Amino acid sequence: MxxxxxxxxxxxxxxxxxxxxxxxxxxxxxxxxxxxxGWTAAGFIGSYFGSGGHAPAANDLNGSTTFGGQVGRxxxxxxxxxxxxxxxxxxxxxxxxxxxxxxxxxxGNVIGIWSTRYQNYVQPYGSAGIGAIQMHTSVLPATxxxxxxxxxxxxxxxxxxxxxxxxFAFAGHTVGIRADIRxxxxxxxxxxxxxxxxxxxxxLLSGINFWRGNIGxxxxx
Length: 221
Known about the structure:
There is one protein chain. By secondary structure, this protein is mainly β. The chain is built from 3 helices and 8 strands; from the N terminus they run αβββββαββαβ. The chain has an 8-stranded antiparallel β-barrel with strand order 1-2-3-4-5-6-7-8. The longest helix is centred in the first third of the chain and has 17 residues, at 2-18. The protein is elongated, with a radius of gyration of 32 Å.
């Protein structure tokens, strides 16, 4: 019995020495750098400048405050964004208007970012696209012009395009700033077949073009 126990103990010891050690647990691979792609959003304030248009009254206007917002989605270095930009006082002087019109833009763009790396805090970009340029006017109650005795509120839109670029700059992973400069241009109105007030607004909007510069708070996630 003692000999049997000794043999068994010796066999167990020999097996323990020759058996392979268990494999270490597999290491978890770290997330690849530069693979954080997602959403961006911004609210901004700025001004327009360098204005022009087919109507003489729409050329070389004094700038005024604008504001707007942006939301976008990135896939690697390319993405899509929507920009809405508002100029409540677009300083066109016309004897037919009771006040300066408002000019708003709504654009869907393709955007390209120089770097989408999450650890990079400065991200230059360029974008361009198409959309609508809209003008709101208040036409004076001049009976020969409008056939009315009260101001007529008119809203007209034309197809337009934009191109521009700027920079996202983030102090951390989520909140930063967005600085942008952008050129807008509307198409030409070839036919004027509405009411006198509508035709006046359409003529002022025809071929309108301008630059807008903006800066504001940006977010990414």
